[in-house]
Amino acid sequence: MIWSFGGPLIDAKISYNGTLRGLAGRVKFPDGLLVYDYYYDPMKQQWALWSERVKPFDPNFDGLFSNLVVPTAETNRQKFLIDVHRKTRKGLLYVGFAGTGKTTIIKDYFNSVDKEITVCSSMNMNSYTDSKALQTVIESNVDKRMGKIFGPPSGKILMFFMDDLNMPKLDKYGTQSPICLIRQIIDYQLVFDREHLEEKKTIQDVMFLGCLNPKSGSFTIDLRLSRHFTMIALGTPDKEILNTIFHQVLQNHFKNFDNTFNNYAKKIVDATSVVFNGIALTAQFMPTAKKFHYQFNLRDFTRIVQNVLQAEA
Ligand SMILES: Nc1ncnc2c1ncn2[C@@H]1O[C@H](COP(=O)(O)OP(=O)(O)OP(=O)(O)O)[C@@H](O)[C@H]1O
Ligand SMILES: [Mg+2]
After folding, report:
1. To test ligand 1's pocket by mutation, which of 103, 241, 293 has the most ligand atoms within 8 angstroms of CB?
2. Over 80: is that where the pLDDT of 64 sits?
């Protein structure tokens, strides 16, 4: 219930939290946070916080923020949700504005997934992506199993991630050919041989994951495809998540510094947070048709922290 009905909500999360608590009856949620922040621990037979499951971040990264994913409550619960979907091969679609951490969640999942049973592949869509390009990438990830049946190596599942799913341009019929192709694969498990159109190829054991920004490209995608996905909406990460990510990174960096730098990590994150929220919520800095580049998101926060990381002890 929390994720099936409540997954696609953003602003309504708070009122849905109230509704669900009202409906829960004997399954009483702990007070304090939203129902989204809890999971049911079957071993202890009680609700527990996602944030308590978060492992500390591994400081051995190469210094480039783009390669770094700090485990947070968000990455943790999304990892769990993707795992649940994996069992039924049902797809997941992450919807959120720029810089809400959509790509990072999938990247983090792919880094941690068991490669013995999974083949991971991704494709960034853009306005020039057509169904032929998509088919080529999908086919390059599957092998011939027998006859006309194709799939990842036996016993494995192909997790195919499509970033910016709504970017391909609309054709004159108002459709997007890559979207139609994915729908066809999900509905019928088949693609047509491009050289010999009379031949069909069956594609098995593929699970699709997607991300889209509802403010870019065609804004939305065809309902005939989106109905196959569980939709999860992501908003701007809350303060606690920002702290988990950036505080740990800076704290780790300042380890080699003089003692006076001990609480600088907290100060820098707090100060950046104040400025970030100030700018992001000020009407003067809202993106307009003329100033569409006024986009302040997690990326800007990341840049500031990344620059601080350039400082040496
Ligand atoms: N858990 C995390 N650990 C470290 N960095 C993170 C984490 N989550 C998000 N970020 C940082 O936030 C920034 C934005 O994240 P990401 O690229 O995933 O957003 P997005 O929603 O895919 O945006 P877009 O729609 O523009 O592609 C990135 O610079 C990323 O490094
Ligand atoms: Mg992205």
Report:
1. 103
2. no
